[in-house]
Write a structure and sequence with these properties.
Elements lengths: L19 H6 L5 H6 L4 H9 L13 H12 L20 E6 L3 H12 L3 E7 L3 H13 L6 E3 L6 H6 L5 E4 L6 H10 L3 E4 L7 H14 L3 E3 L7 H11 L6 E9 L3 H4 L9 H4 L11 H10 L8 E8 L4 H9 L17 E7 L4 E7 L11 E4 L2 E4 L4 E4 L20 H5 L10 H15 L7 H8 L1 H10 L5 E2 L23
Parallel strand pairs: 1-2, 1-4, 2-3, 4-5, 5-6, 7-10
Antiparallel strand pairs: 7-11, 8-9, 8-14, 9-10, 11-12, 12-13
Length: 494
């Protein structure tokens, strides 16, 4: 039986790059890229231009052709299972976890899983055995039995997913592996949470939606920024009506990553930098998009319907290479096409507008923008400030700290959480594990994951089509019209 009703093209179906520089982009210049990269992934980047479902020429086609290609994939196929909107987890006394990927992110996150009561880490996986064994030692140091270690090869994660003593699989690997790993976890009866972005193609997003509905397993984008203290405070204020009727919001990932992307040890290979040789659009929309989508109840009374994207020229990475990399470094064989800054405008069914930005290739202090405006006022972050009528009438920003009473119960209960990113990582893990233990509906689901990631392929195609607005699929198949709970949760009784 075919497990995928809507299979994505295999790598050999996708036209490859041509030219010496593009051939170099497909080589595997490091241990990590050899172990963790699938064949033809550079070509898969081109496939994104055609949305993984149209013709490859659509990537450089006229605006009408690009829209037609987008509409073909945006059309919702018949539902194969039942909706996962509002579906609770099964209640359990403990959550048994398997962790795939133990680089920078996975190595830090295992500490947080171990810090949450009622969580057992049963298995760890990374093709670099030293990393897997280091993680296993953390588990035993926390007083838990030694986990199974999967480090045989790049496919050993499949054996982790087959285990009968795992409830939840956490994936923190290079982006091109998120889709096959999430798919494998669900096919083996596991709930799965994936770091951003959850997939790189629209066809893959549809497959994850269909598979979640068929298997009755949750597939979640683990968007930690949704659990930021400011984000959760603004969420509660927005839902209480303090901003009036919501009109617009903005989110971003403006983070100077040039030094890290050229560091051979930080990412253990150039996998992240190489995506800038494959796509022109917003490679990482989730951090900015997720919180604003929550403010506006996207998929819970409103939905996003279109995206229009523009991008600058690609100069930043090449300029950094010119200044910092020695002659003969493998990076000199790379040709960068990713826009230094991508700006997208997303329209919702209710007429709201969301602005997304992405810039990791030029000098810029860190900012996720994180703004929200309505008929009664506006909030803007970086730095945090607010202006709400009738309190503010002098055209001067007010102090956001005055609104601490609106903090989410999670932040009131965990005022000083452990871990990185200001504690939002721990809050996210704690809440997810709590929902699984108590049999609650998760704060977000596969439909949110698909929507928050859709700008990756769509922004690329819109830029290629000179900013043409493209349709965003309704991954909920109409369920968005029904109001339902999300991240603005009530504290549950244990």
């Amino acid at each position: 039986m075919n497990d995928d009703a809507r299979p994505a093209p295999e790598p050999h179906d996708i036209p490859p790059h041509s030219g010496a520089a593009d051939e170099a982009n497909r080589r595997d210049p490091s241990r990590r890229s050899v172990l963790w990269t699938t064949a033809g992934v550079a070509g898969a980047g081109l496939g994104l231009g055609a949305l993984g479902g149209g013709t490859a020429s659509a990537a450089g086609a006229s605006a009408p052709e690009a829209v037609a290609a987008a509409e073909a994939v945006a059309a919702a196929p018949p539902r194969q299972g039942r909706t996962m909107a509002g579906v609770p987890f099964e209640r359990r006394s403990a959550v048994r976890v398997g962790i795939i990927g133990l680089g920078n992110r996975g190595d830090s996150m295992i500490d947080l899983f171990l810090a949450v009561p009622g969580v057992q880490v049963k298995a760890v996986c990374d093709p670099v055995r030293d990393k897997a064994e280091k993680a296993a030692k953390k588990v035993t140091a926390a007083g838990q039995p030694a986990p199974a270690v999967y480090a045989k090869d790049e496919h050993d994660y499949e054996n982790l997913c087959k285990r009968g003593d795992i409830d939840f699989v956490y994936v923190a690997t290079p982006w091109e592996l998120h889709f096959p790993m999430a798919k494998t976890a669900m096919l083996n009866g596991k709930h799965v949470g994936v770091e951003c972005p959850i997939a790189m193609r629209l066809e893959e997003l549809w497959q994850l939606v269909d598979l979640s509905e068929r298997t009755r397993r949750h597939c979640m984008q683990l968007e930690n920024c949704c659990y930021g203290k400011n984000e959760m405070r603004v969420l509660r204020m927005a839902h209480a009506g303090l901003f009036g009727e919501l009109q617009h919001g903005a989110g971003a990932y403006n983070h100077d990553l040039r030094e890290l992307m050229f560091d051979p040890d930080y990412y253990e290979g150039p996998w992240r930098r190489l995506w800038h040789t494959r796509l022109r659009g917003d490679l990482y929309p989730n951090h900015g998009f997720g919180p604003v989508a929550n403010y506006m109840d996207v998929n819970r009374g409103d939905r996003v319907v279109s995206i229009s994207s523009v991008g600058t020229t690609a100069l930043g990475l090449a300029a950094y290479r010119e200044e910092h990399m020695e002659p003969g470094d493998p990076s000199w064989k790379e040709s960068y096409i990713g826009a230094d800054r991508t700006i997208s405008l997303v329209q919702t069914a209710k007429g709201r507008v969301i602005r997304l930005e992405h810039d990791v290739s030029s000098p810029h202090p860190y900012s996720r923008i994180n703004s929200l405006g309505g008929t009664r006022g506006v909030f803007e972050d970086y730095p945090e400030r607010i202006y709400l009528e009738p309190t503010n009438t002098n055209h001067q920003w007010d102090d956001f700290k005055k609104y601490a009473e609106w903090d989410h119960w999670l932040w009131k209960e965990h005022a000083n959480p452990p871990g990185g990113h200001g504690g939002m990582d721990y809050i996210m893990v704690f809440r997810l594990m709590q929902c699984m233990r108590l049999g609650l509906v998760p704060d977000f689901d596969v439909y949110d994951a698909a929507v928050w990631t859709a700008p990756v392929p769509l922004s690329h195609l819109s830029i290629k089509a000179k900013g043409a607005p493209l349709p965003i699929p309704d991954f909920t198949r109409g369920e968005w019209k029904k109001a339902r709970s999300g991240m603005d949760s009530e504290k549950p009784a244990e």
